[in-house]
Design goal:
With 564 residues, this protein is an alpha/beta fold. It contains 13 helices and 25 strands. The relative contact order is 0.11. The protein binds one RNA strand of 74 nucleotides through α5, β6, α7, α12 and β19.
RNA sequence: UGGGAGAUCGUUCAACGGUAGGACAGCAGACUCUGACUCUGCUUAUCGGGGUUCGAAUCCCUGUCUCCCAGCCA
């Protein structure tokens, strides 16, 4: 059986209300501000893997472009070679594509523009708006001033244009050691906005760049780079997160000073999720310190992690559409994400019976050695997904949690004297139990009602509960990986990640049992294990050993009742 | 105690001077061969104080609280 190639279900933007950025675009189109054009971009730095926070930005940028008949570029903001790697570039390309977006032939790199940026820097020098500064990093910091005091001007601020041109050219040529000089913009050391206090445009940095190799010894800073890249690409709306609000005056200063196309920077709030780390720096730490198996560990909030966990692009897009866009600094509750993956998988995932924590059930009055095939629906609401045969025999496994020797109040499942239905099979009644030396129940003995074959009794008798099962003889043994949040609930925010980790974020059930129909299912096939949760086949699966990840549990009303 | 940006149900997004609405969560019920799904119902909000107005979440003033900014990171 296979659910390969789950049908594409369209994201539902029409269910999402408008947002302030959409309103700005509508207004701009009305006034003809950008000639009715909409051109956005998603500009990650290739210094880590994309996470679900990036998904919000991706959906926003590509989504807006699509909605307004515009374009969206993918551009790598690769101006700091010391942190960037090709591995990250590749993963980002893969992840954006997986999410379902297409930049066509518009894949760019800030490094594509290094020469142009250099020429523009010369222009600013010639315009008297940039100068080479010999101050050390520490001196620059000391002279920057404070929130209440203005900074002091660099003694090198008034060098002649000729000297600046010469020095800058020699910076590029490699005549000076790393960190010894910078090119700075000549703006206003007394500005209340620190970004305007003669910001650094270029630093000397001998580091191999993942694309330009050792061609450059000087690298442009983000602020000097971003607006110009947007400008070159004809970006109309440059959408970024809130922390860049203070940078907007500088963004504008560069494109205006250069006299080039001026895109419009708009800031929105970055995604925060309860109980979830969404900082590249901390995620890198988790990987480096080995707290997770890698960037694609299914507990990671990276796109590669949640993909491996079994989240679908459709669910992610629906989630991103549902959370809205604003400037409020909020935190989305994780259950909203879970709602969207359940909604998607409920509609599409094939049903299957699997027992994660097995306990043996023996049907005393069932003939020894007999096997029969029972018919089961692959999806309760989708007959077109077909039926399958599930083998039944005398010895079965059921979920340990579906049997209690002493039932708590409102417990509908199996206990001595109680009759339940085995899904698609028979009514069974518990008659006795066998225990080991420790008093643990090892076997539950039942009798079945042959007249109830298929799951209904001709006498109209009702049972309170239907439970899932597998035939011991026919079941496949598999490894179920049960995930919980990587972080402890209410973990205090701190850099000491170790103390915040949930010790049960991964529980491996090596002896889980599943019906034989799943044999050979391809990696990342999604299933609903009935009454347990949504699972997908993990990459670690082999022909000999099936490994499944629990994507998310089914909602569990019983768990709530039991708690009370 | 400088500058920038915010504040609407528990959470989040809407309402753009004219009935405060949706989603998630929660609660109660119906249905059910998944205690799932689905369906029904319910609870709960305009940060405080002033003003303008026939009418204010929306405009004005004022106070409070939260977030961001002093990398040669992005």
């Amino acid at each position: 059986m296979s659910t390969e190639g789950l049908n594409e279900t369209p994201a539902t933007p029409e269910t999402a209300p408008s947002n302030f950025i959409r309103d700005i675009i509508i207004q701009d189109n009305k006034t003809g501000k950008h000639g009715g054009r909409v051109h956005t971009r998603f500009p990650p730095e290739p210094n880590g893997y994309l996470h679900i926070g990036h998904a919000k930005s991706i959906c926003l940028n590509f989504g807006l472009a699509k909605e307004f008949g515009g374009k969206c570029n993918l551009r790598f903001d690769d101006t700091n070679p010391s942190k960037e790697e090709t591995e990250y570039v590749d993963s980002i390309i893969n992840d954006v594509r997986w999410l379902g977006f297409d930049w066509e032939d518009r894949l760019f790199y800030a490094s594509d523009y290094f020469e142009q940026l250099y020429q523009w820097a010369i222009q600013l020098i010639k315009q008297g708006q940039a100068y080479v500064c010999d101050l050390t990093a520490e001196q620059v910091r000391e002279t920057r001033g404070t929130t209440t005091e203005p900074g002091t001007e660099s003694p090198y601020r008034n060098r002649s244009i000729e000297e600046n041109l010469d020095l800058f050219q020699r910076m590029r040529a490699g005549e000076f050691p790393d960190g010894s000089r910078t090119l700075r913009s000549k703006i206003d050391m007394a500005s209340p906005n620190f970004n305007m206090r003669d910001p650094v445009m270029y630093r000397i940095l001998r580091a191999e760049h993942h694309r330009t190799g050792n061609d450059w010894l000087i690298y442009p800073m983000y602020d000097y780079t971003h607006g110009e890249c947007d400008s070159i690409e004809g970006i109309t709306h440059s959408i970024c997160t809130l922390e860049f609000e203070d940078h907007r005056p500088l963004y504008d200063w560069y494109v205006e000073s250069l006299g080039i196309h001026r895109p419009q920077q708009i800031e929105f709030d970055r995604l925060n999720l309860t109980n979830t780390m969404l900082s590249k720096r901390k995620l890198l730490l988790l990987v480096q310190k080995g707290y997770v198996s890698g960037w694609d560990d299914p507990r990671m909030p990276t796109l590669s992690g949640i993909r491996r966990r079994g989240y679908t692009p459709e669910a992610l897009r629906a989630f991103c559409g549902s959370i809205g866009v604003s400037k409020t600094n909020g935190t989305i509750e994780f259950p909203l994400l879970e709602h969207h993956i359940r909604e998607d998988l409920n509609a599409r995932a094939a049903r299957v019976m699997a027992v994660v924590d097995p306990i043996k059930v023996i049907i005393d009055n069932y003939p020894d050695g007999q096997t029969e095939e029972l018919e089961a629906a692959n999806h309760p609401d989708k007959p077109e997904m077909g039926m399958r045969q599930v083998p039944f025999s005398k010895v079965l496994y059921i979920e340990r949690d579906d049997f209690r020797e002493v039932p708590p109040p409102k417990y509908y499942r199996l206990f001595p004297g109680q009759e339940v239905r085995l899904r698609y099979a028979y009514f069974i009644k518990c008659v006795s139990v066998v225990k080991d030396a420790n008093g643990e129940v090892t076997e539950v003995h039942c009798t079945y009602d042959p007249a109830s074959r298929g799951g209904n009794s001709p006498d109209g008798r009702k049972v309170k509960s239907t439970i899932h099962w597998v035939s011991a003889e026919h079941a496949l043994t598999f490894e179920a990986r049960l995930y919980e949040s990587l972080l402890l609930e209410d973990a205090p925010q701190s850099d000491d990640i170790a103390t915040q980790l949930n010790p049960t974020s991964l529980v491996v059930k090596a002896n889980a049992k599943i019906e034989p129909s799943v044999k050979g299912a391809a990696p990342n096939t999604h299933f609903q294990f009935e009454r347990v949760g949504y699972f997908n086949v993990d990459l670690d699966s082999t022909d000999e050993k099936l490994v499944c990840n629990r994507t998310v549990q089914l909602k569990d009303t019983w768990a709530k009742i039991a708690k009370k």
